Every structure is written in C-alpha cells, then in structure tokens.
Task: structure prediction
Amino acid sequence: GKYTLDGHQTTGQLLERLLEAPLELVRVTIPEGLTRQEIAAILQSAGLADSARFMDVTVDPKLTADLGVPSASLEGYLFPETYHLPPDIDEEQIARHMVEEFFEVFTDAHFARLEEVGLTLHEAVTLASIVEREAVAAEERTTIAAIFLRRLGLRRRLESCATVEFALGLHRKRLTNADLRVVSPYNTYRHRGLPPGPIGSPGRASLEASLHPV
Result:
C-alpha cells in the first residue's frame, strides 16, 4: 500500500506505521488566492470536512497561537497546494497541516528578507494575498508588488479592487462607485496602508514577488 511518512519518526514508529493497513487517501487541490470560506467549501465537497466547523477552527485563538500565526485568523496561512489526506482526518488536523505547509515554504531566507523590505510576516502575507488576487498573468506579480510597496512608502491608498471584493464578500467583473465606498477596514480605496489581514491564501510565486519586487 501507499504510506505518507513525515521523516521524524523513530525506527520503531515506522515499523508500527507500516504494519497498519494503508489508508485510502483523498486528493484535494486548493488553488491560490482562495479565502477561508472558499477553502472550507472545497474541503466539504471532497468529503473531508464540515465547512462550518472548519471556519470555526480557523479562528480558534489557541490554534492560531500554537501554530505561530500572528493573527486572530488563519486567513492567508492555509497554503494552496494539492494535498493527499486520510478520510478520517478532522478539521483541526487539516488546518494544522495547511499552515505547517505554509511555514515549510516560507523559509528562513524569506524571514531574513522581511527586514530588507520593511515588512512584518503578517504584512508580507497580506500584501502577497492582494498581489495574488490582482495579478492576471504570472509575470505581473513582481510589478504589482512593487507598485503597492511604493504606494505604502508614499502613504498613498493602495486602491486595490481585490480588497474591495473581499470587503463585499463577492466577486464582480466591474466594481461600481457604490462598491468603492463600502465601509470596511479592508476597503483600500477609503483607507491608507494595508488592510488588517490577508484577503486569501497567496501561493509561492506571490509570496516571492512581495519579498522581491521589481
């Protein structure tokens, strides 16, 4: 059978694991840029989680603190990837696995780069989440990141449509003037600086772009 091993087990633990009947793993793909709510819906469709329970887990202060996430929510830290998960996994285990994957991708080199660009981890993830939602083509990411960082440096509003959509809780092909006036700390047409937190889960390329803008 197929087994997933994390490389941290002793020889005895490995033998015990291999003596168990192998699990039929469920394959689920989480695309880049999705919100917690969208991720919860995918996991429920795959039969892996109850979406409401998953949403509750991702705002559990004990879990966020335990995982080292500098926020009251796991929004932005649920790393987009293709996962192979056991069918009996629970919502907390899924959230843990996804956040642990984020910190596998966000290496010491990325942490060292934060000081150079003048961002905290939470600010970098927030910026990367905006870049992820704004970019249409992959090559645009570094340019978009550079533009937003320049606006931050000049204390100008970011004026990101993606943040307005997050504030509205929906996607539109074209935002109206009324949409741009929505009252929300996530509306970067009304407020200077970054929003309070990420607007989705950025992928590896958007994280890199936000730390290495052109």
Summary: The chain has a mean pLDDT of 94.
